[in-house]
Design goal:
The chain is α+β, with helices and mostly antiparallel strands. It contains 8 helices and 14 strands. 31% of the residues lie in helices and 24% in strands. The strands form 3 sheets. A 7-stranded antiparallel sheet has the order 8-9-10-11-12-13-14, with helices on one face. It has a 5-stranded mixed sheet with strand order 3-1-2-4-5. The chain has a two-stranded antiparallel ribbon with strand order 6-7.
Length: 336
């Protein structure tokens, strides 16, 4: 099963794929048993499609009477990127593994294709040739094992964006700098310490990602019947959003104000949010803080003054989505 994704002006990390003047063509290989993962990935790629950054092709466009094998192989051989949704069913599939993947390996060895495994369920992929490629989501953790699958899909889409823009799929959080390298398919982790300047730059960049995520998401909601969303940039370090769900009798509204605290934490976090419109900096319903381990900086989410924290490690895109989903939930909106 295949999907073609196209994107202009791409640089890949191998010699024969130079900066393209045509669109990037990505072949997505998956087992029929894993079609639910493909459907979900399509939904997470919808913003890329609305931006005009990608267009998709599926096997549903193969006309009746066409030779299936020829259509699939023609699509694969004309592609620049091979994305495999890897699972036990994929590895067990004679067609996916022994035809599509083996042909992809041949093209890769000839410098004509880039391979990205997306691990959707636990399986023995590290004993296969997939082990030589950087896998998504982060650290090759299967999508089915993430507490919030949306965060896993966001990590996959973010990796594809990075590949499109830089030719690299490594999932280093925003602003941390290189703390890991890949050699022969293995990730090397380098210990480091982070000073106040690095932390400040990290949170500034994270705030910008969150702000831009909310703005684009508001634009997206405003194009849907019965929904209205408004984004307002209050200052360089604050923004506010309002969403109205007119599908509920009498309408239901949600409001949020987000502040970059610029190091002035008080008893809140580095990024403070309030579920009110145009709220001041002296109140909080929750916060986002920058933390670090021996290798990377990351974000954690907090809820109110003494309500506890989510100790999961987020990058800026993941934190933005988690906060956005909480926000629109107040208006009775959620994603499938």
């Amino acid at each position: 099963m295949v999907v073609n994704v196209r994107r202009l002006s791409v640089v890949f990390g191998f010699d024969s794929l130079l900066r393209c003047t045509l669109a990037l063509s990505a072949f997505i290989s998956y087992s029929h048993a894993d079609e639910k993962y493909l459907d979900r990935l399509h939904k997470h790629m919808s913003l890329l499609q609305r931006e005009g950054s990608v267009e998709t092709w599926t096997d549903h466009q193969i006309v009746a009477g066409a030779k299936l094998d020829k259509a699939v192989m023609d699509a694969l051989r004309s592609s620049d990127l091979f994305i495999a949704l890897v699972s036990p069913d994929y590895i067990a599939s004679n067609y996916c593994y022994e035809k599509e993947f083996e042909e992809a390996l041949r093209l890769f060895e000839n410098g004509k294709l880039h391979i990205v495994p997306v691990i959707v369920e636990p399986c023995d992929w590290l004993s296969s040739p997939f082990r030589q490629f950087m896998a998504l989501p982060k650290d090759g953790k299967p999508i089915s094992e993430w507490t919030n699958a949306n965060v896993a899909y966001l990590d996959v889409v973010s990796g594809i964006r990075r590949l499109v823009s830089t030719g690299k799929t490594d999932t280093v959080p925003v602003g941390t700098g290189p703390s890991a390298a890949v050699t022969s398919g293995r990730r090397i982790k380098i210990k480091q310490e982070f000073d106040s300047i690095q932390r400040g730059e990290f949170i500034d960049q994270a705030y910008e990602v969150i702000r831009d995520y909310f703005k684009s998401s508001c634009d997206e909601l405003s194009g849907i019947d019965d929904l209205k969303a408004k984004f307002h940039r209050m200052s360089d370090s604050s923004f506010t959003c309002t969403v109205v769900n007119r599908g509920i009798k009498g309408g239901r509204e949600a409001h949020i104000t987000v502040h970059n605290s610029k190091g002035s934490r008080h008893h809140f976090g580095d990024i403070n949010y309030v579920f009110e419109a145009h709220a001041g900096t002296n109140t909080s319903n929750g916060s986002i803080r920058v933390n670090a381990d021996d290798y990377n900086m990351y974000l954690t989410l907090g809820f109110g003054g003494l309500m506890g924290r989510d100790n999961s490690k987020y990058d800026a895109q993941q934190a933005a989505e988690a906060l956005w989903l909480e926000f629109i939930g107040h208006a009775g909106i959620e994603y499938d």
